[in-house]
Specification:
Fumarase C, Chain A, domain 2
Length: 413
């Protein structure tokens, strides 16, 4: 760009580019020696360039400042990092969709307040996380739009008197837009906060999934068994199989939250424009990107290896009067107002508890104590598979609905 605008000669521009390419290869091969006595990475590269090509290397810094260079570097790093994270989110969503198709016939209890509530398909539960990661994908794509704005050419804070072509530089660096205000450009770290915020929400979803897996793999639940490669034994109790990987993911959520809080705290009191406090933006960004990529990568490998215990899940789904709502809706079909149907069902459940019976064990005579409208067809509403099958409302857990969701996911890949 400097050569194109005749700010420096074409010969010097070509010489600088050749020298930078040599340095780039040295860095790739681990042969470049960074000198701690030089202030930063930019000075290291400029110093090496001057040694390679002579005084022309001193023209590298023309029309730019460390302030807009650092802002540029951080945006370049995040642009690549977000794209990697988006690819991993996509891969993980595919894993969840594949598992949902594979385990389409497993029924489990759905929970509210960690109490057994209604029977659902395991596939429906897994696809709930698929929805969460769909929203994460949307958030990171939105964030990427605001990351992909080029600050280069803002110089220290006021722009430059030299006739630079910022739009041309943006095209070379594949930025979709250029910053509109030089003071904002060198001090803006909103895109960092947005990245950390989106990352925090993603980690919430990963942590919730990890918590489900931890609970399911406990002896109290017995719904799932983790592969040995993602578990460890106790140092003292030989019978233990600890869900280490999900626990570590759940734990790492805290550090990502901490990075967001740290960045908000750093930025809240900084006057315009650049201040040295902004050096504190690197560690939160680098560590968060690494944490997200490692957590997603390990889950992509681990989830397909989990063994689900179909019999235990379905046995648990039968407990806790999980088809009670179906009974209430059965009464609604008999034209009983829902509030009355709810009350009648509550009395039926109370009767079952007092007599140590399940809903399916009641005789028609016992049912009719509570409503004369109850007929023999009531037993269809106490069957686990029928309960799931009837949840055909859009977004419901009926097999036909879940399979339709899986097909749609496949179409939208």
């Amino acid at each position: 760009m400097l050569g194109k605008q005749k700010i420096i000669s074409h010969a010097d521009a070509e010489l600088i580019i050749q020298g930078l390419n040599v340095i780039k290869e040295e860095i790739k091969r681990g042969k470049f020696k960074f000198n701690d006595e030089l202030e930063d990475v930019h000075m290291n590269i400029e110093h090496a360039l001057i040694k390679k090509i002579g005084s022309a290397g001193g023209k590298l810094h023309t029309a730019r400042s460390r302030n807009d260079q650092v802002a540029l570097d951080l945006r370049l790093f995040l642009r690549d990092g977000i794209r990697e994270i988006l690819e991993l989110i996509s891969d993980f969503r595919n894993v969840l969709a594949s598992l949902s198709k594979k385990h389409i016939d497993i029924i489990m209890p759905g929970y509210t307040h960690l109490q057994r509530a209604q029977p659902v398909l395991l596939s429906h539960h897994l696809l709930a996380y698929h929805e969460m990661f769909e929203r994460d994908k949307e958030r990171f794509n939105e964030c990427l739009k605001r990351v992909n704005i080029m600050p280069l050419g803002s110089a220290a804070l006021a722009g430059t008197t030299l006739p630079v072509d910022r739009k041309y530089a943006a095209r070379l660096l594949k930025f979709q837009a250029i910053s509109k205000n030089s003071m904002d450009a060198v001090s803006d770290r909103d895109f960092v906060i947005e990245f950390l915020s989106s990352s925090g929400i993603l980690m919430v979803h990963l942590s919730r999934l990890a918590e489900d897996i931890i609970l399911w793999s406990s002896q109290e639940f017995g719904f799932a068994e983790l592969p040995d490669a993602y578990s460890t034994g106790s140092s003292i109790m030989p019978q233990k199989k600890n869900p280490d990987v999900p626990e570590l993911i759940r734990g790492k959520t805290g550090r990502v939250f901490g990075h967001l809080t740290a960045m908000l705290t750093v930025l809240k009191g900084i006057p315009l424009t650049y201040n040295r406090d902004l050096q504190e933006d690197k560690e939160p960004v680098f560590d968060t990107a690494d944490t997200l990529k490692s957590c997603l990568s390990v889950l992509i490998r681990m989830m397909p290896e989990i063994k689900f215990n179909k019999k235990t899940m379905e046995r648990a789904a039968l407990g806790g009067f999980s088809t009670a709502t179906d009974l209430a809706e059965y009464l609604v079909r008999k034209k009983i107002p829902f509030r009355n149907a709810h009350e009648i069902t509550g009395k039926v459940v109370k009767y079952c508890i007092s007599n140590n019976k399940a809903l399916k064990d009641l005789t028609i005579k016992e049912f009719r104590q509570f409503s004369k409208l109850i007929k023999k067809d009531v037993y269809n509403y106490n069957d686990l598979k029928e309960s799931v099958k009837r949840k055909t409302s859009y977004g419901g857990t009926a097999k036909e609905r879940v399979l339709a969701s899986i097909r749609q996911i496949s179409i939208n890949k």
